[in-house]
Amino acid sequence: MHDQPIHHVSHGPVRRVSFDTVARNRIHRHSYFEPCIVISGAGDFEHGAERYALGPGDLFLADPGVYHEIRSLKSRDLKLYFVSFQIAIRRSKDRDRSAALTPQSLITSFLARHRTHLTNQSDVIPLFEYLYEIATGDDAFEQSANYRDASLLLIRHVMSALTSSASLSAGDYSDRQQKSRVQRAIEARLHESFRIEELARACGMSERTLRRRWRSWSSRSLSDEINHRRIERACQLLMLPDLAIGEIGYQVGVSSPARFSRLFRDLKGLSAREYRQQVMRETAHAMSGSNQRMTEYLDD
């Protein structure tokens, strides 16, 4: 009889980050899970095709392989703790503290379905804070059994909160899957001009059905959603200084420069050129006199 595989959790240290000097950490992705808890301030979290407003006590998670970005552009006062962890499969003979402190049923449920964002989780902040203080005050913290156990309990809490809150009815889950399918279809076509009819056909439904379902999923109209995503993609391209602004509209499916300019200003409140200049100033300020990352870590 073969040993049953079990899941093993490994983790990094708890870190703390502030967005008072640098207002964003740029779009990126990584190979591990990264839960964060908001200590104070406000901002937003873009994760794949979704965006979440952030406030104190919010717990949110970046999944492996998913492009994401954390921002505090307006208030620049967002502060949060974060930790990274990975889940791997081992054989039962390799059972360790990770398996003992993190139930296999919880990990399986978490991997199958979990939330990305959850409010009102301030009760977990003290545990993040406790682990952060140990990690910054003791060079040998990773060898501490108390630290390892407390870290695993933190990750267990995060998994449990995000998994239990993801319980959806069959109908709700189906709606979420359909909405994600539409969002992916939009993202795949942002480089070209397309009609709603074509989008609906790609999603296996009529235009009328797609518009009706989208109204039940979002406060934005479908056309507004497409335009919003085009401009968000344009903002990413504007971070590339060698790409001419006149070319960016074409790359996000808006062939008319005048229409691109109007859309950008309507959605961002400033011109594409002004947006690029603002981003370049932030970058220059962040990099001047140091080699610090776009996100500043706080060392108390």
CATH architecture of the largest domain: Sandwich
What is the mean pLDDT? 83
The helix-and-strand class reads alpha+beta
**Topology-level CATH name of the largest domain:** Jelly Rolls
Q: What composes the largest sheet?
A: 6 strands, antiparallel
Our count of helices gives: 11
Strand content: 15-25%
Q: Mind explaining what this structure looks like?
A:
The protein has 300 residues and is an alpha+beta fold. It has three domains: 5-164, Sandwich (Jelly Rolls); 169-219; 225-288, Arc Repressor Mutant, subunit A, CATH 1.10.10. It has eleven helices and eleven strands. It has helices at 97-101, 104-112, 125-137, 145-164, 170-188, 196-202, 207-217, 222-238, 245-251, 257-268, 272-287; strands spanning 5-11, 15-18, 34-40, 43-47, 50-54, 59-62, 68-71, 79-82, 85-91, 117-118, 296-297. The strands form three sheets. The chain has a six-stranded antiparallel beta sheet with strand order 10-6-3-8-2-11, with helices on one face. Strands 5-4-7 form a three-stranded antiparallel beta sheet, with no helix packed on it. A hairpin with a 2-residue loop joins strand 4 (43-47) and strand 5. The radius of gyration is 22 Å and the shape is globular. The model is unreliable at 289-300 (pLDDT under 50).
